[in-house]
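User: Modeling request: complex.
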Amino acid sequence: MKLFNYRKPYDKDSLSIDEIGDNPIDFFKKWFKEAESSDQIIESNAMTVSTVDVNNNPSSRVVLLKEIKDNSLIFFTNYKSKKGKEIDENPNICASFYWAPLERQVVFKGVAKKTSESYSDTYFKSRPFSSQVGAIVSAQSEIISSYDDLLTKYDNFLKENKNLDLKRPSHWGGVELVIREIEFWQGRENRLHNRVISSLSAGSWEHNILSP
Ligand SMILES: Cc1cc2nc3c(=O)[nH]c(=O)nc-3n(C[C@H](O)[C@H](O)[C@H](O)COP(=O)(O)O)c2cc1C
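Assistant: Request completed. Predicted assembly structure:
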């Protein structure tokens, strides 16, 4: 399958370094709101998180951003999953957004840490009961014998725990990516895209333009 002719012009907007302002996280919030308001973007908070294992093999997968808090991005996952184990071994991670209808990409790099137990509890409680059960019965990233077995496990758990106040499993909770670098990308004509990289250095943000 050759895709040589797949090509789309980018001409919707532009980005100059002066637009970023003092705090690139505030600028990200502005772009995020624009992505949220676009009726062509279904899950503006879906981001691809990349981790690296002990043998330096990278893995990426989509998770949902649940809060932009101070200097960090927060998502929730199973700490015993592949990504959870990799973060334990190497907390340097990357998270990226691609909002195709806006011709924009944002790439974050930083260091991951677990959120506090109480923060994870609060979020777990806010989830629908069915999602809480899903998190409890799924040993994320483990090989299972069949999908039907998982459904049976789910149904049995529901029968035994109907209307109970469920406790968050200790291996499930928030991951906080403490941001140290953000790159904003805006598609432009003739592949001469705008790229601005903001790096945290000695407590203040430094902005630079990158060649596309
Ligand atoms: C749109 C979308 C949203 C997802 N959100 C999450 C999430 O918030 N947390 C999560 O652990 N997995 C989420 N997943 C599933 C992950 O992509 C992945 O399959 C799972 O976390 C296991 O990854 P791992 O085996 O690399 O640890 C989402 C998948 C998609 C496509």
